[in-house]
Structure formats: structure tokens, C-alpha cells
Design a protein that fits this description.
With 233 residues, the protein is an alpha+beta fold. The chain contains 8 helices and 5 strands. Helices cover 38% and strands 24% of the residues. The two termini are 29 Å apart.
Length: 233
């Protein structure tokens, strides 16, 4: 991603931060900050870390004319009210990119933690073996999970002092395949293949769309996967 140099420098100076201080807080080296302020590209993860230390969303410091959806660097998350779509998406994704994006109040935290634990429980790595994971993909079980999730989504919307909801999206990146073996459990088989990532943000009800940077490497055109099947591991 390429940053809006003027905006980036202005935000840093407004916080009375030197390049060295910003680099230290964002856990990058000074040369990285210098490159960003010179209009050179850096990874989406670095942009997100720097923006966080400046107290803004990363979209506020990127150059939208040079860092766009067409560059395969940004995914748009939208309001999702279907528990079934979330259950199916998460259970068939290799990774889950989930974060709360709201100002927390004590009576919100219990419900949000329960929601996040529920989501993690759907993911393949939560299961002790492949047979249990495969059973969780049964339509009847997923319908039951979706009904429970829909109930949670309804409760979150009614929270005080402000209701919360879920923004959801999916994207494909390159990743290593995973296999199940009886002696070692889930293991990285080192075979590079396209994998699906489910992205979730928990936000206040007034936020309808969030754009986040992709994580991982893009899938090149005409890429030939090492695995012939399309399972997510």
C-alpha cells in the first residue's frame, strides 16, 4: 500500500512524534516510516499498525488513487444478518480474521466475548480430529448453530448504551495446506494453495461498511495449486 504522504506526516507531527518514536510504537524500523513518508509501498499490515498508533483508521492515511480494491489490497466488510451465512463461511475457512471495532462498555463485553468464543468454536482447528470437524458440516448441525448465532446477533443489537452488529466478508489468499494425521493431529503440509479467509468486525450499529487490508499473499494469475481438491486444509 502507498500512503498519502501529506496526511501521514501531518498526523505524526500533530502528535509531536518523531519518525523514531512512531516506528518504535508501531514495531517497525525507522527506515520503514521514511519509506512511507516518501510515498513508497509497504505492506497492509504495516499501514494498519502505523494508523493505529496515530489514532486513525488505516483508510485515512492511504493514497486511494494508488491503493485501491483493484490492487487486491482491500476487502469490504458489510453488515451481515444471516447467522447461517456466517456459520457456513467460518466453518469452511482456513483462517478467521476477527476483531471488535467499538468503544467498549462493561455490559457489552460478556455478550461480545460469548459471540467470539462461539465463532472460534466453529473453526476447523477447534476440533480434535477430522471426523468431528466433518460432522460439524452436516446441514442439520449447521442450522442449529445458525439459530443459536441469530439469537446472539439479536441480543447484541439490543445492548446498552449502544447496540452492536457484525460486518462480514470473505477473501482468498495463498496459504499452506493442512492435513490431519492420527499421531500429530492438524499439521501444516507445506503445500501452497489458495485458502479462504473469513473476516469479521463487531461494530456499533451506525457503521455499515468497513474496508480492511488483505492479509497474506495474493493468488497470482494462472496459479496452479499443489493440491487437487478444494477442501480448506
Amino acid at each position: 500500500m502507498i500512503c498519502n504522504v501529506e496526511k501521514l506526516v501531518s498526523l505524526r507531527e500533530a502528535k509531536l512524534m518523531t519518525q523514531e518514536k512512531l516506528a518504535a510504537q508501531a514495531r517497525v524500523n525507522r527506515r520503514t516510516i521514511q519509506r512511507m513518508e516518501a510515498g513508497e509501498p509497504v505492506s497492509p499490515e504495516i499501514v494498519q499498525n502505523v494508523a493505529s498508533e496515530l489514532g486513525v483508521e488505516y483508510t485515512e492515511i492511504i493514497d486511494v488513487n494508488k491503493s485501491s480494491d483493484n490492487a487486491n489490497e482491500i476487502v469490504t466488510l458489510r453488515e451481515e444478518k444471516s447467522g447461517l451465512r456466517i456459520v457456513r463461511g467460518v466453518s469452511m475457512s482456513r483462517y478467521v480474521n476477527m476483531k471488535p471495532e467499538f468503544e467498549p462498555w462493561p455490559n457489552q463485553l460478556t455478550q461480545v466475548k460469548y459471540f467470539m468464543d462461539f465463532i472460534w468454536g466453529l473453526h476447523m482447528f477447534n476440533f480434535e480430529n477430522y471426523e468431528e470437524y466433518e460432522k460439524s458440516l452436516d446441514d442439520n448441525i449447521q442450522m442449529e448453530k445458525a439459530a443459536e448465532l441469530n439469537f446472539m446477533l439479536g441480543l447484541m443489537e439490543e445492548l446498552e448504551p449502544e447496540g452492536l452488529h457484525v460486518l462480514y466478508g470473505e477473501y482468498i489468499r495463498l496459504g499452506n495446506g493442512w492435513s490431519w494425521t492420527t499421531d500429530k493431529g492438524w499439521r501444516d503440509n507445506k503445500l501452497v494453495t489458495p485458502v479462504k479467509i473469513a473476516a469479521i468486525r463487531i461494530t456499533s450499529l451506525d457503521v455499515k461498511i468497513i474496508k480492511i487490508p488483505f492479509t497474506g499473499k495474493p493468488v497470482p494469475e494462472n496459479f496452479r495449486p499443489d493440491l487437487d481438491d478444494d477442501v480448506p486444509f
